[in-house]
């Protein structure tokens, strides 16, 4: 049972993180410009790709890319015309890297930036470092927020499996007598957590597992009185992992169809 979902063509949280960074860098300072302003920029460069001179498939390129490393901005002075081929080939490089010491093109772009009063953030190294620290914080907060909301929705989705309010875990004893009682109950599976030989609450068990990822003994109890013993390799369980999410997408997935009425986890 993996601690994280791995899904083919899934939407990675990194996409949201990068989008937020782009949004921040695209809205710094106070500047407005219109389509007409962009058309004036096109005319400035002869309505051609600033990199290769082509006049086909012209796109708007950020000479300095908008990312945490380069700190480009969505300002008129940072926008230059580029053909789709050059734009794609340039990728995350800035215009100086992409031009590969072509001084004519570099000078042309530098003069254009100056004419639009654009001063790249990266010019001031001390401020540059501070900005990158702030952006890193924003980047991390988006990941944390996404994981928190995923867990909240998963808890709602698996509400009938992980409703700790209805769970009688506090009343369970580590004995065959109590296990028999578990089998007799209907509704959502009863859950029992054993930590170092003693019954504990789910939160206590989860906290210990986050600090001490290890193999977990799992016993599943079925409606037909059968038992199944398994070992969950939880070595990848971390501070950002969720016990509810792991069990809900693993051992207790489709618990009704499987006839599962109880589960015991033991470390």
Descriptive overview:
The chain is an alpha+beta fold and 267 residues long. The chain has two domains: 13-137, no CATH class; 160-266, no CATH class. The protein contains ten helices and seven strands. The strands form two sheets. It has a five-stranded mixed sheet with strand order 4-3-7-5-6. A two-stranded antiparallel ribbon has the order 1-2. It is elongated, with a radius of gyration of 28 Å. The model is unreliable at 164-180 and 182-186 (pLDDT under 50).
Largest sheet, spatial ordering of strands: 4-3-7-5-6
- C-alpha Rg, in Å? 28 Å
Average residue pLDDT: 86
Quote the distance from N terminus to C terminus: 16 Å
Topology:
Layout: H1 13-26, H2 35-44, E1 58-62, E2 79-83, H3 84-90, H4 95-99, H5 103-115, H6 125-157, H7 176-184, E3 190-195, E4 198-200, H8 202-211, E5 215-222, E6 227-233, H9 243-248, H10 255-258, E7 260-266
Helix pairs in contact: 1-6
Search tags:
267 residues, alpha+beta, 2 domains, five-stranded mixed beta sheet, two-stranded antiparallel ribbon, 10 helices, elongated
In short:
This protein has 267 residues and is of the alpha+beta class.
